[in-house]
Structure formats: structure tokens, C-alpha cells
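pls design
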């Protein structure tokens, strides 16, 4: 569509509307991208591999809208270096840890690295010695435990899944979480505000017996309340499906996010809404009733934007 404006859009959860925040200066092919936000520096980091030149790691200043490409000094005609960048960023995963950006694995890497903001390069932290590569995993940082969790993904062969692993920033070591099977990859991993649960919405199941991986719409909950004792359960709710596009295989392309995870701000918004409805005289209604309204409306919401592979279906649930 020639009238389409490509860029970053922001969703207002109050009036339930989208607005254009940042227009791409050129057409960016952001297939299989990873995005994290640095709320101290107000920067958005985008990791991407599927485009022409190796412009694969970008910083966007959310105040000035300035764009920084970490690969600006790379010769676009250097095919060997381009291939290296493509393979070592493809299907990698990034996570914000104390406002440091960590990159874990890739299509051709078994390394855990951290982004150096001074020289704009990734430096090695650790290596998964038992694997040649580790990719399509999802990672989250749990502040209360000071750990990184990687969930799902595989180690080259799509039938060999990773499961759940934990990295302690105190010890600098990874460990496998035993007793949990999670044979999926891609999609999203979202941490609840109280850091008691991780909502998992994978896009595909790992292949078995040399077969093909299949699209999945299941949602899983990883309970992480008890230190070191994690439990996985399957939700009764599924991700809404998009109609199958002619000429394309079935694929779950949903984008997921949690909103309402700022408890204080959410309470203020609900109280403000009640005051607008009943007027300034709050004495006319019992505070017990107001508190019940706040309790049931001050909750986190899971948003799902389902995208058809052919590009003709975009529904926000």
C-alpha cells in the first residue's frame, strides 16, 4: 500500500488508539527483530538481521529520535564480513539487564555477550560449551532475583530444545532448571510486575523425529515465586489465530505485550476516572466501593497483535 507509513507506533491504553511516534527514514525490513528499552537513557535498541547491508543493531533516542547504527563503519561491499554479521546476529536474543544490553546466542554462536556503549561492540561474558550454537530462545531479566532466564529455543537441530536455564549475575554462571519441559521457540516471554510469573507465548513447537516444526497458539505460565523451584503450567487461553494466507504456511506472527504494570500510575488513572464520572465530591460514594473498582480495574493486560503472513490481517486483541 503506497499510503502506508512505516515506523514505530505507540498504543495509548487509555483511549485505545495507535499513533505514529517515529517514521523510518528509509524502509527497514525488520523481520525477526528483537527490541528492548533502556528506561534510564530513554533509548530503544533494535536487533535485526534480515536486510541488505549489515545494519543489524540500532539505537534510537526516544527524546531526540536520533538513530545510531553500530555497524556504520562496516563496508557494505565486504561480503565475508556481511556474512559473519548476518550469522552472528540472526535469531539471537537481547535483554536489558540493569540498563546493559546482553546478547545471547545466535544462528552461529553459543556465546553470551554484553554491549559496550563506549566502543559500540559486543564483548564476551560466557560460552555454552555443551552447544555449538543456541538460538531462537527468549530471555528475561528478573530484578528481584538478579538473574537472567532463557526459555525455549534450540541448539541447531530443531528437535534438541534448550528448556529453561538461569544465569546468576552474582556468580556469573549458568545452570539448567531441571524438571521443566518446554519444547517451543520464538514468540514472547513477558514478566509480570510482581515478578512471580512469566507469560510465555511461543510461535512454534520444536520439531520431533526429523519432522517440521509447527505453529502453536498455546500460552504457558512459568511460576518463579520460589527461588530455584520453578513450575510450568499451560493456560486455558490461546493466542487468537489469523486466517491462513494463500501461498503461505501457517505461522503464528503475533506480537504480545503487557500493560498496566505500573501499579501506582494505574491506581491514579482509575481514581481519576471515577472522580470524572461522579464529580469532585468523592464523599457521595463509599471508599470501599471505590477500592473494589480499583482492585478489579488496576490489573495487567496481555495485548496481542496478530499479523497475517500475507500482510492483509492486523488485529489487536
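designed seq:
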Amino acid at each position: 500500500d503506497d499510503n502506508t507509513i512505516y515506523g514505530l507506533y505507540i498504543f495509548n491504553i487509555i483511549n485505545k488508539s495507535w499513533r505514529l511516534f517515529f517514521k523510518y527514514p528509509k524502509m527497514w525490513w525488520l523481520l525477526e527483530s528483537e527490541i528492548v528499552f533502556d528506561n534510564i537513557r530513554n533509548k530503544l535498541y533494535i536487533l535485526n538481521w534480515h536486510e541488505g547491508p549489515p545494519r543489524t543493531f540500532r539505537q534510537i533516542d526516544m527524546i531526540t529520535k536520533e538513530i545510531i547504527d553500530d555497524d556504520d563503519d562496516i563496508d557494505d561491499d565486504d561480503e565475508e564480513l556481511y556474512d559473519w554479521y548476518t550469522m552472528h546476529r540472526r535469531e539471537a536474543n537481547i535483554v536489558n539487564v540493569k540498563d546493559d544490553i546482553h546478547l545471547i546466542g545466535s544462528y552461529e554462536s553459543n556465546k553470551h555477550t554484553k554491549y559496550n556503549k563506549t566502543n559500540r561492540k559486543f564483548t564476551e561474558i560466557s560460552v555454552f560449551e555443551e552447544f555449538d550454537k543456541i538460538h531462537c530462545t527468549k530471555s528475561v531479566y528478573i530484578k528481584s532475583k538478579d538473574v537472567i532466564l532463557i526459555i525455549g529455543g534450540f541448539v541447531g537441530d530443531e528437535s534438541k530444545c534448550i528448556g529453561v536455564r538461569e544465569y546468576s549475575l552474582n556468580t556469573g554462571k549458568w545452570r539448567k532448571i531441571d524438571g521443566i519441559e518446554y519444547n517451543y521457540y520464538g514468540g514472547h516471554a513477558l514478566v509480570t510486575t510482581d515478578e512471580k510469573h512469566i507469560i510465555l507465548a511461543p510461535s512454534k513447537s520444536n520439531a520431533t523425529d526429523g519432522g517440521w516444526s509447527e505453529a502453536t497458539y498455546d500460552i504457558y505460565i512459568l511460576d518463579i515465586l520460589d527461588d530455584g523451584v520453578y513450575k510450568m503450567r499451560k493456560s486455558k487461553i490461546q493466542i487468537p489465530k489469523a486466517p491462513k494466507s494463500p501461498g503461505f504456511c501457517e505461522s503464528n506472527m503475533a506480537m504480545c505485550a503487557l500493560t498496566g504494570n505500573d501499579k501506582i500510575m494505574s491506581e491514579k488513572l482509575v481514581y481519576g476516572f471515577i472522580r470524572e464520572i461522579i464529580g469532585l465530591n468523592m464523599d457521595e460514594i463509599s471508599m470501599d466501593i471505590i477500592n473494589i473498582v480499583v482492585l478489579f480495574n488496576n490489573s495487567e493486560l496481555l495485548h496481542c497483535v496478530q499479523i497475517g503472513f500475507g500482510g492483509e490481517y492486523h488485529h489487536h486483541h
